[in-house]
């Protein structure tokens, strides 16, 4: 599952140059980016100016941090802290300012012994150093000022970043690399593109279209009445009139027919002048046939009411490659509104994805109302600066000091979740809820602490202890990968299992009321740090009672054995991250994780995310499948959508597991992904020798590959727009690979022929994306804030050359240093200009990409 902390603003130490009481002197900077925070009526403004990104010729930075007092009161020499999210800070003693870790990703800047008061309108500057910055995500977020004498209030602080020209060389090199890659892309006429997406198994155009208009009726067999009604509502939104739905009839119509010899999720589609016929053996198959019809329609059909739509004549026979085609939405670390969840389900349904992994609980938030345990959302669903409060969580991931932040505070009520379940059910999407445990559980732990204190005050001690998730006398010391020292459930306590049973049963009740399928619950299981449970009195008591538990490592099997039994008694199976099916062994003096034979035959479904080159786990998914585990391929290298699209400094997103653009999921080969493991975590070509000895997938293992899932973690998503930018268009590549059969290039043995076949397939795909699907996403379900790739550009023979990944998009440029707009000159031939040339790609609708700057 990943979750290396969002490695932002990692200062190795703080060097002081002294504080000036003089008026703030504006510092020269060649460029100020939009990253940072603008705050009205802010008492302070902080400006970080990057001076050296290879300080002392090492991968570290040197910057100047200027604190400007923009308020009406002096910033005193003592008694304040500036909190911010991001980085695992290390600081040498400083007599001017100090940087200290609070918990998780929350840090603060505090005055040292020689810090001097800053009067209104005055500034102080300090020098800071740390790890080199890679992209704009590396900087602090959510800055706010808190006074020691008023610990319940935090005041947002304005923040500005000045990166200078330190990234120009790498940006220009990246643009040249993209230019070279784009040269393999052909511009294919729209009429020659496959008009059903994802690519169907068999597709043949017939040339005789059907005219869909307000006179069209829907004739549906009894098994498909729900799908027929949903189709009628879709057509009503397009044409303004809801078609009549009936069981039989003649004439031009859309017919939904049941035919038993078609695979469960498969369908057959025929369009001719007499109408549209979709045949399937199941409601799901009919539904996917309807989605194919929707992708046949022009994007304009979804933009507003039209009188008629021409549907191209064709015949399709289709069925999915995998029964599990998943997307994971993290709403815990940063929240997304219910409307965004429903919008995601609409997109998933359109592209025939059928599993929605709902990540609603984490260290930083619990987002689902559990009626039996209200504190889970009243406490765990709220983030607020109040160092003395036990009724909310502290700010994380830039949510800021107020509980009015839409990213930090929020949850789904029971009614909301039932609505989500029904919405997913009607779109043939299974919702898998995730209860993070035993690690990544801080929100739950703190919520149950609050419940305990409330009931103890009421004199109900026994009831208070019923759901505690930690031993109150535990003195264990640990630190999770994300920086928490209090985020792991104590698995020795009966109260932990009381908690899990209650949450599971409340969730089951919601599914039952929604009439939605529930076959499994995901219990997390990853990234439990060393040191946990070692000084827990509860653990000590359990180990003295149960002699099979010899070390704290054995508690892992104890815990998941009990959770597995909890689910089995409710006719559910256990899902989790890969660690639930691994055990720790010592090999050649080194600790390794290997498949645990104890649970191999227990129908555990595991999301295997570790496959980074050089990690030793490149083949872990195949090893676990070969051992008998049901594996959902969730590899970080190709499928983590929260990772930045490219190495560009201006591209938002994390990069600890590499960079994932639209092409990475496209060239992922599920049954032979080691073959296309091309880049290391820095985006450089890998040494192929590191995977030569890796374990291949066996015939048994192949049968255990359940499907594909793409997670989108939310550390850097503070709005629906942030979320959608990372989701689209990458999700289209995931949908293609999960539904469609192996393309010819994936099994071709001849390297040269493979490359030619790949270039052709990639060209066809990006043409479909650019000319059919992105225009649809401009308007579908209200429209999506998809990412537009920046142009590739290179200087050749003294001229600037440019191209674009998405055929049909326009490149515009300037030569005077200004930002290109939709009215700037269009790039049609090499630009013969010296100095600074800026280029930007624009969609037909006028939306733009990031800007590429070349100095010629």
Automatic annotation (TrEMBL):
The active site is at 527 (proton donor). Keywords: Glycosidase, Hydrolase, Signal. It comes from Adhaeribacter aerolatus. GO terms for biological process: carbohydrate metabolic process; glycosaminoglycan metabolic process. One of its GO terms (cellular component) is membrane. Gene3D superfamilies: 2.60.40.290, Chitobiase/beta-hexosaminidase domain 2-like, Glycosidases, Immunoglobulins. This is beta-N-acetylhexosaminidase. CDD domains: E_set_Chitobiase_C (cd02847). One of its GO terms (molecular function) is beta-N-acetylhexosaminidase activity. Residues 1-22 form the signal peptide. It catalyses: Hydrolysis of terminal non-reducing N-acetyl-D-hexosamine residues in N-acetyl-beta-D-hexosaminides. Belongs to the glycosyl hydrolase 20 family. Residues 42-194 form the Chitobiase/beta-hexosaminidases N-terminal domain.
């Amino acid at each position: 599952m990943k979750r290396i902390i969002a490695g932002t603003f990692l200062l190795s130490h703080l060097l002081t140059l002294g504080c000036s009481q003089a008026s703030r002197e504006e510092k020269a900077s060649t460029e100020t980016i939009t990253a940072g925070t603008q705050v009205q009526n802010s008492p302070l403004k902080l400006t970080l100016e990057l001076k050296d990104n290879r300080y002392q010729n090492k991968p570290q930075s040197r910057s100047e941090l200027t604190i400007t007092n923009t308020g009406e009161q002096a910033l005193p020499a003592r008694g304040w802290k500036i909190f911010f999210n991001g980085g695992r800070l290390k600081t040498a003693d400083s007599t001017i300012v100090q940087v200290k870790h609070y918990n998780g990703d929350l840090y603060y800047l505090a005055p040292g012994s020689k810090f001097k008061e800053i009067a209104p309108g005055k500034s102080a500057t300090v020098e800071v150093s740390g790890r080199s910055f890679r992209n704009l995500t590396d900087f602090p977020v959510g800055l706010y000022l808190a006074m020691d004498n008023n610990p319940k209030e935090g005041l947002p602080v304005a923040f500005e970043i000045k990166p200078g020209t330190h990234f120009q060389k790498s940006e220009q090199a990246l643009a040249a690399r993209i230019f070279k890659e784009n040269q393999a892309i052909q511009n294919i006429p729209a009429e020659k593109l496959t008009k059903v997406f994802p690519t169907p198994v068999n597709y043949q155009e017939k040339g005789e279209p059907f005219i869909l208009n307000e006179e069209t009726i829907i004739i549906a067999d009894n098994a498909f009445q729900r799908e027929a009604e949903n189709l009628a509502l879709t057509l009503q939104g397009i044409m303004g009139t809801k078609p009549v739905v009936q069981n039989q009839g003649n004439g031009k119509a859309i017919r939904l027919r049941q035919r038993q010899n078609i695979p469960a999720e498969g369908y057959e589609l025929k369009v001719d002048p007499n109408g549209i016929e979709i045949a399937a053996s199941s409601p799901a198959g009919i539904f996917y046939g309807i989605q194919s019809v929707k992708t046949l329609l022009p994007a304009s059909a979804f933009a507003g009411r039209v009188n008629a739509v021409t549907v191209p004549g064709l015949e399709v026979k289709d069925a999915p490659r995998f029964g599990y085609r998943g997307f994971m939405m993290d709403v815990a670390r940063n929240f997304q509104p219910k409307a965004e969840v429903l919008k995601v389900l609409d997109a998933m349904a359109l592209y025939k994805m059928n599993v929605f992994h709902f990540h609603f609980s984490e260290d930083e938030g619990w987002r689902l109302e559990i009626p039996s345990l209200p504190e889970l959302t009243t406490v765990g669903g709220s983030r607020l600066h109040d160092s003395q409060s036990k009724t909310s969580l502290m700010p994380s991931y830039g949510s800021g000091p107020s509980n009015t932040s839409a990213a930090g505070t929020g949850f789904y009520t029971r009614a909301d979740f039932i609505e989500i379940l029904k919405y997913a059910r009607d779109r043939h999407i299974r919702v898998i809820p995730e209860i993070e445990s035993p690690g990544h559980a801080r929100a739950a732990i703190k919520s149950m602490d609050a419940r305990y204190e409330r009931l103890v005050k009421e004199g109900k001690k026994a009831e208070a202890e019923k759901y505690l998730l930690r031993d109150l006398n535990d003195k264990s010391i640990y630190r999770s990968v994300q920086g928490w020292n209090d985020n792991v459930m104590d698995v020795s306590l009966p109260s932990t299992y009381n908690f899990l049973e209650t949450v599971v049963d409340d969730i089951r009740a919601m599914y039952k009321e929604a009439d939605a399928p529930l076959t499994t619950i995901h219990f997390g299981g990853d990234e439990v740090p060393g040191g946990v449970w070692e000084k827990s009195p509860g653990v000590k008591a359990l180990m003295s009672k149960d002699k099979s538990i010899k070390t704290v490592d054995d508690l892992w099997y104890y815990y998941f054995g009990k959770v597995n039994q909890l689910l089995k008694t409710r006719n559910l199976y256990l899902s989790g991250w890969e660690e639930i099916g691994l055990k720790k062994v010592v090999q050649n003096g080194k600790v390794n994780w290997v498949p645990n034979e104890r649970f191999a035959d227990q129908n555990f479904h595991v999301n295997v995310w570790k496959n980074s080159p050089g990690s030793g786990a490149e083949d872990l998914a195949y090893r676990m499948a070969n051992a008998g585990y049901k594996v959902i391929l969730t590899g970080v290298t190709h499928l983590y959508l929260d990772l930045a699209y490219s190495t560009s400094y201006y591209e938002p997103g994390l990069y600890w597991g590499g960079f994932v653009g639209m092409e990475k999921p496209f060239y992922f080969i599920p049954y032979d992904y080691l073959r296309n493991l091309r880049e290391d975590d820095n985006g450089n070509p890998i040494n192929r020798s590191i995977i030569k000895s890796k374990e291949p997938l066996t015939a048994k293992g192949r049968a255990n590959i359940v499907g594909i899932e793409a997670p989108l973690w939310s550390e850097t998503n503070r709005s629906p727009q942030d979320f959608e930018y990372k989701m689209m268009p990458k999700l289209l590549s995931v949908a293609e690979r999960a539904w469609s059969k192996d393309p010819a290039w994936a099994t071709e043995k001849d390297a040269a022929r493979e490359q030619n076949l790949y270039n052709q397939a990639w060209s066809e795909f990006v043409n479909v994306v650019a000319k059919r699907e992105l225009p649809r996403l401009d308007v579908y379900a209200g429209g999506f804030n998809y990412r537009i790739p920046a142009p590739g550009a290179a200087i050749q023979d003294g001229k600037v050359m440019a191209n674009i990944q998405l055929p049909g998009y326009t490149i515009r440029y300037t030569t005077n240093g200004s930002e290109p707009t939709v009215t700037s000159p269009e790039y049609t031939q090499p630009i013969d200009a010296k100095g600074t040339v800026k280029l930007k790609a624009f969609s037909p609708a006028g939306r733009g990409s990031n800007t590429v700057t070349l100095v010629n």
